[in-house]
Amino acid sequence: PPPPPPPPPPPFTTRRRNPRLVSDWSSDVCSSDLRGWRMIMPMAEPPTVVRDMTHGDLAMVSDIERRSYEFPWNHGVFRDCLLAGYQNIVLVRGEEVAGYGVLSVAAGEAHILNLCVDPEVRSRGYGDKLLDEMRFRARAASVRQVFLEVRPSNERALALYRKKGFHQVANRPAYYQAHDGREDAAVLVKKLVTED
Q: Could you give the CA distance from residue 48 to residue 129 in angstroms, rounded to a whole number?
């Protein structure tokens, strides 16, 4: 009778490692031997830091903006926000800008003008970090409440803002540009109190 077939490989493995080929190891994963097979494990998440936006960040910020919105801000708008002295921040992941926010503070109120995370690294809590930093800066400026506008169709953004305690107080008709005309904006507010 023919010999029995070899046992199937263990789960979560890819291919048998040739011990003579050191280059067979992947450079972008952590690997460990398991009876001649490789177990693939994801790399650790790069460290992140939120800091002030600089003019040197504008190219990466503008690139994220273009890849995120159908009607994006251009490079000049971000430059003007820096020149105007707004609270402009970036979240840096490793060596790359992964998100940004723009906050205007005046007359005891704050207005979030823009908050965006690179589409390639979303759902990792970066939007939370940016929003928390802007809320912290607003409170440091003795602001009592923070306003923002958001498209009702932007369900991901709405979910984040509601999770952080924002609620809708008004509607701005035909506020945003859209392919089929204009889209309304939902106006949200978050009151800041000392114990929050």
A: 10
Residues in the chain: 196
Can you name the residues that pair with 186 across neighbouring β-strands? 150, 171
- Token pair, residue 162, equals 């509601």
How far is residue 28's CA from residue 128's CA, in Å, rounded to a whole number? Answer: 27
CB-side exposure of 39: number of CA atoms within 13 Å?
Answer: 7
Buried b (16+ CB within 10 A) or exposed e, 63-76: ebbeeeeeebbeee
| SS percent in the chain: helix, strand, coil, step 5 | 25, 40, 35
pLDDT tens, position by position, 57-66: 999 999 999 9
The model scores a pTM over 0.85: no
